[in-house]
Design a protein that fits this description.
The chain is an all-alpha fold and about 230 residues long. The chain has two domains: about 140 residues, no CATH class; about 90 residues, Cd81 Antigen, Extracellular Domain, Chain: A, CATH 1.10.1450. The protein is about 70% helix and about 0% strand. The two termini are about 20 Å apart. This is Uroplakin-1a. Belongs to the tetraspanin (TM4SF) family. InterPro entries: Tetraspanin/Peripherin, Tetraspanin_EC2_sf. It is found in: Membrane.
């Protein structure tokens, strides 16, 4: 029963990850390092499989069937290996993004305001993050000034040194002072970078997949050993 409940919890947790509540998937997708989500899909399968196998194990013990218990143990080992792969995959690819803010900056400068499909997707994501989190760029507004970018190719620095989504707004999301924002007055432009929010989002996903999955693996291990013990005594 504990393994069945843990399997359902893993199933629910990883569905939350694949739903991308923080809406940061475009960053991982464009970089080609979206295996955090691949790990989540594997964990969805594993969570449901752990639940089903828990039922199978109960039936096998209730009937005292060695062949059925053997099938249960073999399937448990297979699911155990897949869940281990899910934990490792998610954690290693999380490091690629979280430990490398320059990658996120380069990606933002290359795709924000670009006319391509990926550019439109990244632009919508960055606009939403900068609006909701009241931040600007990866590390701050100077990201747009100190580097060449697709945004700069479309908008001269005199007219828009950074996207106007970086401007401070009132509770109704109306820009407080667009001219003050344009000239960089600290009272009218958000000086905080958005990388901290992105880092927290990816970390939340990884903790849900990797560490919660690892805890369930630790629970599954004695369950399998107990099943092996019962197999030898039948």
């Amino acid at each position: 029963m504990p393994l069945q409940l843990a399997g359902l919890a893993l199933y629910a947790e990883t569905i939350w990850v694949t739903a991308d509540q923080y809406k940061v998937y475009p960053i991982l997708g464009v970089s080609g390092k979206d295996d955090v989500y691949a790990g989540a899909w594997i964990a969805i399968f594993c969570g449901f499989a752990f639940f089903c196998l828990g039922v199978l194990g109960i039936i096998a013990l209730a009937r005292g069937s060695r062949p059925l218990l053997m099938v249960y143990l073999a399937l448990m080992v297979i699911v155990y290996i897949f869940e281990s792969a899910s934990c490792i995959t998610s954690y290693t690819h999380r490091d690629f993004v979280v430990s490398n803010p320059r990658l996120v900056t380069k990606q933002m400068l290359s795709f924000y305001a670009a006319p391509s499909r990926q550019g439109r997707e990244l632009t919508r994501m960055w606009d939403r993050i900068m609006m909701e989190q009241q931040c600007c760029g990866t590390s701050g507004p100077l990201d747009w000034v100190n580097n060449t970018s697709a945004f700069r190719a479309r908008f001269p620095e005199v007219a828009a040194p950074w996207p106007f989504l970086c401007c401070r707004r009132d509770p109704n999301f109306v820009i407080l002072n667009q001219e003050g924002c344009r000239v960089g007055h600290v009272d009218y432009v958000n000086t905080k970078g958005c990388f901290e929010h992105i880092e927290n989002a990816v970390n939340s996903y990884t903790w849900g997949i990797s560490w919660f999955g690892f805890a369930i693996l630790m629970l599954a291990c004695p369950v399998m050993l107990l099943g092996m013990y019962h197999y030898t005594t039948l």
